[in-house]
Each structure stands twice: as structure tokens, then as C-alpha cells.
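Practice problem 4.
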């Protein structure tokens, strides 16, 4: 759903910041639909290339393999978030429309950027403690509460925990 999308340019900003700190490859995945293609093209342009863009080019089985062998996934509340989580791949989930503790990647909750309570307070004008777990924030402004720094902070913590190599570090096989 469009309300769960995060601004595509912000993904590019996250990648640019993280590339200065960590050594990693970027693989873009998504369906063959026009919105997914637009998103991946905008991200690829925003980071000036240097990524593998598989958007619209992989089957479900191939997507599962990509997610299984990835170090991490950055995504909003999507099917691939749950697939990656089930495979044991850490998910930096971007949540503001629904409560991640009820609908999110259960094994990766420590990596989730959770702006749902803020969205409930500011957009719905309700107390997050009193709304039903089924309550959604059906407003495109909800995901815009997630800032680039929020995602970078979660990624930095995750990458440090999984011992990803710092940027500009040569990796040598022994």
C-alpha cells in the first residue's frame, strides 16, 4: 500500500551515509510494477549507481535466495520483510502505519524504526496506549515521520553487531 512507502530519496540518503562508514553491497529488489521500478531507479540515481538492481527481475524463489544470503534488509512493512525475518536475515523495518510489535518482523524488532506511536498521537490525535492493536494510520504523512538519521542509527547498531567491515577496509581471506 502506498501509505507504507517511505520517500525513495531517503533510502538513497541512508545508503550514502552508511557507505561512508561500512563496506557493503546494495541490492535493490521489488516487483515488476511501475512504482517499484520508479523507486529502484530513483534510489539507484540517488546513490550514483554502484548497486545491483534486480527490481522486477527476480522470481519469488530468487527473492528468497537473495534475502537468505543478505546481511540485512531495509524495508517498510512488506512481504519481503517477513520472508527475510523468517529466514533469519535481520530487518531494519520502517513502521509508522501499524504497530510493529503486532505486524512487524518479530525476530528483528530491536532493529525496527517505530514511529507508530508518534503517528497515532500527531496524525490521529489519539493516545497510542488506548487504541486497538488493529488501528492503522491511513495517512501518507505517517511514514514521513521516519527520518534518515533514525534509519542510519538502527543500521549502524545492526552492522556493528553483525561485525560488518568498516568502509575503506580491505577484506583478506586467510
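Answer key:
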Amino acid at each position: 500500500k502506498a501509505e507504507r512507502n517511505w520517500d525513495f530519496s531517503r533510502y538513497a540518503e541512508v545508503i550514502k551515509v552508511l557507505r561512508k562508514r561500512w563496506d557493503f553491497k546494495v541490492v535493490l529488489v521489488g516487483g515488476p510494477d511501475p512504482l517499484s521500478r520508479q523507486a529502484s531507479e530513483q534510489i539507484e540515481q540517488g546513490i550514483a549507481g554502484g548497486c545491483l538492481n534486480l527490481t522486477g527481475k527476480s522470481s519469488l524463489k530468487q527473492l528468497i535466495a537473495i534475502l537468505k544470503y543478505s546481511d540485512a534488509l531495509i524495508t517498510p512493512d512488506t512481504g519481503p520483510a517477513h520472508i527475510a525475518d523468517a529466514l533469519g536475515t535481520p530487518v531494519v523495518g520502517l513502521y509508522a502505519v501499524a504497530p510493529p510489535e503486532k505486524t512487524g518482523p518479530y525476530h528483528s524488532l530491536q532493529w525496527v524504526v517505530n514511529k507508530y506511536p508518534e503517528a497515532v498521537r500527531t496524525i490521529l490525535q489519539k493516545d497510542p496506549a488506548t487504541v486497538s492493536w488493529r488501528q492503522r494510520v491511513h495517512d501518507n504523512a505517517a511514514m514521513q515521520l521516519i527520518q534518515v538519521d533514525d534509519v542510519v542509527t538502527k543500521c549502524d547498531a545492526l552492522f556493528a553487531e553483525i561485525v560488518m567491515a568498516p568502509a575503506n577496509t580491505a577484506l583478506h581471506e586467510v
